[in-house]
Design brief:
Layout (H helix, E strand, L loop, with lengths): L12 H9 L7 H10 L5 E4 L6 H12 L9 E4 L3 H14 L8 E4 L5 H9 L4 E4 L1 H9 L10 E4 L2 H6 L3 H10 L5 E6 L4 H10 L4 E4 L10 E7 L5 H11 L5 E4 L3 H13 L4 E4 L5 H12 L5 E4 L14 E4 L6 H8 L9 E7 L4 H11 L11 H20 L5 H12 L4 H13 L38 E2 L2 E2 L23 E2 L5 E2 L22 E6 L9 H12 L9 E3 L4 E6 L3 H7 L4 E2 L2 E2 L2 E3 L2
Parallel strand pairs: 1-6, 1-7, 2-4, 2-5, 3-4, 5-6, 8-13, 9-11, 9-12, 10-11, 12-13
Antiparallel strand pairs: 14-15, 16-17, 18-20, 18-23, 19-20, 21-22
Helix pairs in contact: 2-3, 3-4, 6-8, 13-14
């Protein structure tokens, strides 16, 4: 299907400027077909798969549609999951960057209503949300649809599959009849057609087909790992496969900087590439990578556009891309010119649903890889060291060292002892892992810090998860891959401290206060810290562990008991790490919320 340059479309300068800054010049087929039609104000049915660029296909017309001088909600975008709602909100925010006065807000289950009330009060013109939470805000009269002139249903088939039909119909019944309704769906089921007949007027159909996406020269595999163990697994993959030149992709600039810092600290020739860098610095980094002076290039998708370097051994997806189309662009940079390439994907348990979307999009079943164990790592390093020795044995210039060996032999030291000592001196410098082998995979629930699948653990299926014995569901619907709509997050809804105390997601225990009283594990050498965030801030124990381990640079396994309350939490850390945790977390966030940590008084 035909594509166009963005500047060939009837778009405002502020859109063209934003698109250019994001690194895009050409439209995707769905964008070329849909944008001009949606901008006419007609009702539209768009048939396109996830990852084809459809967010911009409806997002750009929505931005153009809004009158930024008015402070009422003019566009509603419905999405099936909280993750997709956040992604759509983020991309539209980027596209609207240069349209002054335009605000975009995401509302979904699992986040506090208060925060969403505040965002809606600011006068946001575009609201992106899940049907259940949008309906809740309408009922609470915190979201008014009186001035809605455009409604967009993204992934409508998925919303119907998740049981949101009644919510969608009720929301649409509150919107003015004289509005534009745009619907995007991967399939056109009977239910979808019923929705279009009932709520659209003479819709124009825009359909985009997609060819199968695959590359036989690329060996793809994914690894289900704990968030805090991603870096360790990546290092093991690099060493075990003896990768010489590779690209590592992260979703954010801050993560690029963090990964580069860790790699350099461990002696790897790594450089970062992201949008905050000046062009001269970006050119310098690219030249170092192109000529092999940098072995590992860590980049964001936008910054990496246009990279064309031959001989890339592997592409490591440190994060699952927000737009599935990016995955194809990423891995296409290896396995070129008939050579074999590798594509590794590191995912956490919460990425599983989007992993299935990725396989549907690429039409390729990506196998799960085996995380290298410590023995695999040692075997690979020993093999590499042996190959270096054998290669050097054949080279000239070794004679000058033979006299030194003969001198030590006359002192009664055997050749075997000399060689053993030299190997220990060399291999003993190798980096030692801070993780045990059983602390890497996220394939099974962990008993540490009291997580239990029976009470909201990650291994429980949605219909089986409970809070204090109450089934965690609402009318059989679930928003997102891991949380019940409108409820507490599964991961932090219940708290077990491994002892006799239990917090079942109800009210805070009587007498619990900032000082903590005599609560805590009482383990020698551990200090109790106060955190100003709790369950109502949508913070769970795994968020606390991940943030502290990442920012304070301490192993997650040394973090002790965590006690969660509605508005605050306590965490125990080794006494030797207290200052590192407090300093490392200063000005940082936990699950996107500003955190304040201090010693509990």
């Amino acid at each position: 299907m035909q594509t166009l340059k963005f500047n060939e479309l009837p778009l405002s300068d502020y859109i063209l400027q934003a698109v250019n800054e994001m690194g895009f010049t050409d439209t995707t087929p769905i964008q070329a077909a849909a944008i001009p039609v949606v901008m006419t104000g007609k009702d539209v049915i768009g048939q396109a798969q996830t990852g084809t660029g459809k967010t911009a296909a409806f997002g750009i017309p929505a931005i153009e549609h809004v009158d930024a001088e008015r402070r009422d909600t003019q566009v509603i975008i419905m999405c099936p999951t909280r993750e997709l709602a956040l992604q759509v909100k983020e991309q539209i925010t980027l596209l609207a960057k240069h349209k002054k006065g335009l605000l975009v807000t995401a509302i979904f289950g699992g986040e506090s209503y208060e925060r969403q009330f505040q965002n809606l009060k600011r006068g946001t013109q575009i609201v992106v949300g899940t049907p259940g939470r949008i309906k809740d805000h309408i009922e609470k009269k915190t979201l008014k649809l009186d001035h809605i002139s455009m409604v967009i249903l993204d992934e409508a088939d998925e919303m119907l599959n998740m049981g949101f039909r009644e919510d969608i119909e009720e929301i649409l019944s509150h919107a003015p009849e004289e509005r534009q309704t745009v619907l995007f769906s991967a399939t056109m089921s009977k239910e979808i057609l019923n929705i279009t007949k009932k709520f659209q007027k003479d819709p124009e159909i825009v359909k985009v087909t997609r060819k199968e996406i695959t590359n036989d020269n690329i060996e793809q595999s994914y690894f289900l790992v704990k968030k805090e163990a991603k870096y360790e697994v990546m290092i093991r993959l690099i060493d075990v496969h003896d990768l010489q030149l590779m690209l590592v992709f992260c979703n954010t600039k801050s993560k690029v900087d963090e990964v580069v810092e860790e790699l350099q600290a461990n002696g790897y020739l790594a450089e970062g590439l992201h949008g905050d860098m000046r062009q001269a610095a970006r050119n310098q980094v690219m030249n170092k990578f192109r000529y092999g002076n940098t072995k590992i290039l860590v980049a964001t998708d936008v910054a990496a556009r246009g990279i064309d370097v031959s001989g890339v051994d592997a592409v490591i997806n440190y994060d699952l891309p927000m737009d599935l189309e990016y995955y194809v662009h990423r891995i296409g940079r290896t396995g070129r010119a008939g050579k074999q390439g590798k594509a590794f994907l590191l995912i956490t348990r919460r990425d599983r649903m989007r992993m299935r979307d990725l396989e549907n999009y690429t039409k390729v079943a990506i196998p799960e890889g085996k995380i290298p164990m410590q023995t695999d790592l040692e075997e690979a390093r020993n093999k590499k060291f042996k190959e270096k020795i054998l290669a050097n044995v054949q080279e000239e210039g070794n004679q000058q060292f033979e006299s030194l060996i003969d001198e030590m032999k006359t002192e009664g030291i055997s050749t075997y002892s000399i060689m053993t000592a030299l190997m220990r001196m060399q291999l003993g410098k190798q980096r030692r892992s801070e993780f045990r082998d059983d602390e890497l995979s996220d394939n099974k629930p962990t008993e540490r810090r009291g997580r239990d699948a029976k009470f909201g653990g990650r291994d429980a299926r949605p219909s089986e998860r409970t809070f204090g014995g109450e089934r965690a569901r609402r009318g059989g619907r679930f928003e997102g891959s891991s949380r019940p709509e409108g409820g507490r997050g599964f991961e932090g809804g219940s708290r077990f401290d491994g002892g006799s105390r239990r917090f079942d997601g109800g009210e805070e225990r009587s007498g619990a206060r900032r000082g903590g009283g005599n609560m805590g594990s009482g383990e020698p050498g551990m200090v109790r810290l106060f955190i100003n965030l709790g369950r109502k801030d949508n913070v769970a124990p795994n968020h606390i562990v991940g943030a502290i381990a990442s920012e304070a640079k301490i192993p997650g396994r040394v973090i002790g008991q965590i006690d969660m309350y509605d508005k605050f939490s306590f965490v125990e850390v080794p006494q030797r790490d207290v200052s590192k945790v407090i300093e490392g977390m200063r000005g940082k966030t936990i699950n996107a919320r500003e955190a304040n940590i201090e010693v509990a008084k």
